[in-house]
Amino acid sequence: MFQLIQDDGRVGYGCLDGPVVFNPEAFVLRGFFGRPLGRLRRRLALGGFTYLGLLGPDWLVAVAAVRLGYAANVFGFFCDLRTGRSWERSLKDLPSRLVFPLDPDAHAIHYAGRGCRLDLAKSHARGRLEVEAAFGGRLALDARFPFGFEDQPLRVVNPSCGDPRRFTFTEKAAPLVPETFRAVFDGRELKGPAAAVVDWSAGYFNRHTNWYWGALAGFLEDGTPVGANFAALVNESYYPEDAFWIGGRRERVAQVIFEVDPDRPEGGDWRVFTEDGRVDLRFRPLGGRGERAWLPGMKVNFRQLAGLWRGRLRTRDGREARLEDVPGVAEVHLSVW
């Protein structure tokens, strides 16, 4: 089994296609001038987050959990892609209130408090991903997915925001088609077909973080499942966090380029493309959520948008897939945490 931090203390950077021993305790976290940091600084710097977005023909239900060394955040989000109507419940709490095991291959994330609950369990050995969530009596999600290494998730290890003294492991996958699901918002049961995008990331994050992110999950006009994950400006200094999946087959691509106004990302279509032309997509925002906060030692400014993707994807062997209004998300994120 691949050991993330090697016996000599170095990080095993790369694109990984199998199980991982996630052992951040073996990593020597250093400051600006290379001095090893103490136990408290290490504990505060280590974090993880997970996101699951289930996308129907005209709706998005998303749940997420973020655990930093000094705080936790859990949220549930709904967006009606027909009307742009959005609803969110976001809870900030002590990190001890969120159970977030740092194991990318098998974990059971749990939070309960203030009328909300989130349980998200994954086991690659069993090939299962399960989520149960309820937020404020308005949003509920119960879904079961087959999810194992045969689904070819994108697992990448990079320096955090280009800083070789920190690292981030991330796993992305789309589309995950549920075996069963029940999603309800304000008493209305949401109808499929549906597919999900998932993201699990952990490591010693860089305190100054900036990214563009886009993902989609749905079906081509002939019913073939299609999904994608794209990222820029964050951890892809060595290995891009960019791939798409068509019919269960993963296609890694070169670094993507985002054309978007970072100050008004909801103001018009985004263009996301690669220099070699294998990805050429446009994203139309239809609704979203965001936050601008300035707290002692922390600043956050982000917009996460739900909308529709269209354009084309080209496989390595030259086959082309046309996307017409496939649901997905996109985000502009800037933070000091």
TrEMBL record:
Pfam families noted in UniProt: DUF2804 (PF10974)
InterPro entries: DUF2804
Name of the protein: DUF2804 domain-containing protein
